Automatic annotation (TrEMBL):
Pfam families, A to Z: Ubiquitin_UBP8, UCH, USP7_C2
Descriptive protein name: Ubiquitin carboxyl-terminal hydrolase
Top-rank lineage group of the source organism: Eukaryota
GO MF entry, a single one: cysteine-type deubiquitinase activity
Protein's job: Recognizes and hydrolyzes the peptide bond at the C-terminal Gly of ubiquitin. Involved in the processing of poly-ubiquitin precursors as well as that of ubiquitinated proteins.
Organism: Zea mays (Maize)
Length: 808
């Protein structure tokens, strides 16, 4: 395999086998690396490429140093390393988990692994000498007792957190002095006295989460899940009985246990301080290495993993049967859908399925034989495109090389991941391209053609928003052609020179003509080409008189010209001036186009409409505009329509037609068949390609009340109305590189909205919930009988149970 960064090819094996392999096949030097157990069986081995990097802090001397140690190393090994590094006697040293400059626990279980002790990459370990009063706290007592902590200057990790390698990109607020409370399990928690914080006596469920360093994405997602009424009820009851520790697809139940414990802390009574999600993040990192460390991640990606992981840990099915769902064979959609759902439940049955999973109807149609395939698949959430997110607008000016119409700008919509042929097709339709005509796209830089964009399969992502495109409408020729571009120049008097010589400065957009290769061209032929192309921009076409000269030099010369005429100078690479004549002019072959200059004296510029020659807009921007006002808002229903619209499969995802026995680019249509109790909607604000990444700031107008999806259900035998109410939003502010996640949460029983910004929780008005930062929406089903009774689930139930609850 390849190392993650070095690109080195490595092979895993044991001593004798590796020696035999080296003798037989050769290879480079042996580089032994430690293999550690990453799972719960003896076969879950992996090379530990990056051991833990920890900072040891000896407070009494003010010394700091970094060490490397395996995550499977023990607390005893760490203790020995600390003694060796600082040259201390082992019986005089104790070490502390000093995560975030807070003493979380005394590390005295010498046989416990650092992984089990929740020690993370790049965190601090405090080394104390028990005989040195200046380096320890007053009243040091025996091991296993807990100590009051050094109060940090703020509730954020210290400046050496994550070894400065993971600088937080989250927006932060100044924090007031902190109070510390001891939790039932011995952890010391930080209570911020910020005016924006919820105080004691407030409703339950208003507890924030500490930011561990770029973990706002995780905090936002967790708050949305723990405030889902069904999950609040489930995890505050005896959910342990449903943990499936034997599921090979699960996490031995540990992810569910960590999530349940965190939820209980967040809903605990008594006005608790912000909770540290550190134990949960350790479990998350263990089972999903992509979320390890302190880089910023996507809250929706975390939600997707977490919902799937919780489902596997809580799957009530211990032994999954093998089931092969058959074709419809003429049966009704209702019968087939029920069969698919029953088969799904036979293998997947958990609280996550009960609450969050719905069912699609997917229809594929073969474009050749018309074969129709219908399947019914489960879904956990809907990922909706922003209506025009898959397209971009491109503006270009079309020049008719026959001089029939003035240069005309066109703006067209093309697939954002499309190709040059898509742009040519859209422009051809816009400018009414005729049979026998073709379009040639050119990028213009410094008033000259920089490149032709003529490869039909060229990705449109190579065209930037600030590029300038000229599109030339030319007749189709069967023979191979050479191109000639005519670059406009105007007089530029050099007043700093005593001779006041005239020089010529390029400006405007070049014109383009084509001639068949090996065709004999004279100066008068060039004259006719230019005259024809300039007619649309001349105020009086009869006033045009061109004196044709040619020059291969771009050096400044003093030309004795008739100022009443335009001077057309031919430039090639021979550096000679060719006198005007009827002699044949050699047009050299070029990868672009041979250049001619049209010199415009100041007097002649008055004879033309310079706007047509000078105006060439930028390609412009993606559609829709990056920011929309609420009056221009995109409806959530429009996003849903775009998601459910029939479209052909992409070439990379062809469908095997069982009738044709071949891969076909079938058309695909999705329909909603069965909706869940909690509907999670992901707005696809982020898009990626090989060369670009982008976030759309489009304002989406989503209903807070009465999201009615009744008409979107393909199962017409469902009589109940499908009405949903918003209760949580995961927000993303900022751009792709430096953003911040928050959550807007509604306490259903309080009927009030709150903003959860890491450790800060503050009430907000309902009209503040809708913003252009909305990223993931959480809706709960509202049944008509529930509305009539005025009942709901969630926080009230927990309030009744939690007074007798203690943390385990």
């Amino acid at each position: 395999m390849k190392g993650p960064e070095s690109g080195m090819v490595t092979t895993m094996g044991k001593g004798a086998a590796m020696r035999e392999r080296g003798i037989r096949y050769g290879g480079g030097p042996t580089l032994p690396r430690k293999a550690i157990n990453t799972g719960f069986s003896q076969t879950d081995l992996a090379i530990e490429v990056y051991p833990l990097r920890l900072q040891l802090i000896l407070m009494s001397r003010g010394e700091r140093t970094f060490i490397r140690i395996s995550k499977k190393g023990t607390v005893g090994q760490l203790h020995k390393m600390a003694c060796k590094v600082f040259d201390l006697a082992p019986d005089e040293v104790c070490i502390w988990d000093y995560y975030g400059r807070t003493k979380h626990s005394l590390m005295d279980s010498l046989d416990k692994t650092l992984d089990d002790a929740n020690i993370q990459m790049d965190q601090n370990i405090l080394v104390e000498v028990t005989t040195d009063a200046s380096g320890s706290l007053d009243g040091l007592v025996k091991r296993n007792n807990f100590f009051e902590s050094d109060a940090p200057k703020s509730g954020l990790p210290d400046e050496n957190f994550a070894a400065n390698n993971y600088a937080s990109r989250s927006y932060s607020s100044s924090l007031t002095p902190s109070i510390y409370l001891r939790s039932p399990n011995g952890d010391l928690d930080n209570v911020h006295g910020s005016s924006g914080m919820i105080t004691r006596g407030s409703p339950l469920g208003l507890t924030g989460l500490l930011n561990l360093g770029n973990t706002c994405y995780m905090n936002s997602a967790i708050q949305c899940l723990v405030h889902t009424p069904q999950f609040t009820k489930y995890f505050c009851e005896d959910y342990h009985r449903e943990i499936n520790r034997q599921n090979p697809l699960g996490n031995v139940g540990e992810l569910a246990l960590a999530f349940g414990e965190l939820l209980r802390k967040l809903w605990a009574p008594g006005g608790r301080a912000p909770v540290s999600p550190r134990p949960f993040k350790m479990k998350l990192s263990r089972f999903a290495s992509q979320f390890s460390g302190y880089n910023q991640h996507d809250s929706q990606e975390l939600l997707a993993f977490l919902l799937d992981g919780l489902h596997e840990d809580l799957n009530r099915v211990k032994h999954r049967p093998y089931i092969n769902s058959g074709d419809a064979d003429g049966r009704s959609d209702e019968e087939v859908a029920d069969e698919y759902w029953a088969n799904h439940i036979a293998r997947n049955n958990s609280i996550i399925v009960d609450v969050c999973q719905g069912q699609y109807k997917s229809t594929l149609v073969c474009p050749v034989c018309g074969k129709v395939s219908v399947t019914f698949d489960p879904f956990m959430y809907l990922s909706l495109p922003l209506q025009f997110a898959s397209t971009r607008s491109v503006t270009a000016v079309v020049f008719s090389c026959d001089g029939s119409v003035p240069p005309t700008p066109f703006t067209v919509n093309v697939p954002k991941q499309g190709r040059c042929r898509d742009l040519l097709q859209a422009l051809g339709a816009a400018c009414s391209l005729k049979n026998g005509e073709k379009l040639l796209i050119a990028e213009i830089r410094n008033h000259k053609i920089y490149r032709f964009i003529d490869d039909p399969v060229l990705q449109l992502s190579t065209i930037s928003d600030d590029d300038h495109l000229a599109v030339y409408k030319l007749p189709k020729l069967e023979k191979r052609v050479n191109y000639i571009q005519f670059v406009h120049r105007h007089e530029d008097l050099d007043h700093g020179n005593n001779n006041s010589l005239t020089s010529w400065k390029p400006y405007g957009v070049p014109l383009l003509a084509q001639i068949s290769r090996n065709e004999i061209v004279t100066g008068f032929d060039i004259h006719e080409l230019v005259h024809k192309m300039l007619v649309p921009v001349l105020r009086n076409p009869d006033s045009l008189h061109l004196a044709v000269q040619s020059s291969v030099s771009t050096r400044t010369h003093s030309y004795h010209t008739d100022s009443s005429k335009c001077q057309l100078l031919l430039v090639d690479d021979s550096n000679t001036v060719i006198e005007k004549s009827n002699d044949a002019i050699r047009i050299p072959q070029s990868s672009l186009a041979t250049v001619f200059f049209i010199n415009w004296p100041k007097a002649d510029l008055k004879k033309i409409d310079t706007h047509h020659l000078e105006y060439l807009p930028e390609v412009f921007m993606y559609a829709p505009p990056a920011k929309r006002t609420r009056g221009e808002a995109l409806s959530l229903y429009a996003c849903l329509d775009a998601f459910l619209r029939e479209e052909p499969l992409v070439p990379e995802d062809m469908w095997y037609c069982p009738r044709c026995k071949e891969q076909r680019q079938a058309s695909k249509k999705l329909d909603l068949w069965r909706l869940p109790e909690v509907l999670v909607i992901h707005l696809k604000r982020f898009s990626f390609s090989r060369s670009t990444k982008q976030k759309l700031e489009t304002f989406v107008n989503f209903p807070i009340h009465d999201l009615d999806l009744t008409n979107y259900i393909a199962n017409k035998k469902t009589s109940e109305r499908q009405i949903y109410e918003l209760y949580a939003v995961s927000n993303h502010y900022g751009n792709m590189a430096s953003g911040h996640y928050t959550a807007h949460i509604k306490l259903v029983d309080e009927n009030r909205w709150y903003n959860f910004d890491d450790s800060h929780v503050a009430s907000i008005d309902e009209d503040e919930v809708k913003t252009a930062a909305a990223y993931v929406l959480f809706y709960r089903r509202v049944r008509e009988q529930d509305i009539a009774r005025g009942t709901s689930n969630g926080s009230q139930l927990y309030a009744k149970r939690s007074h007798g609850y203690s943390h385990r």
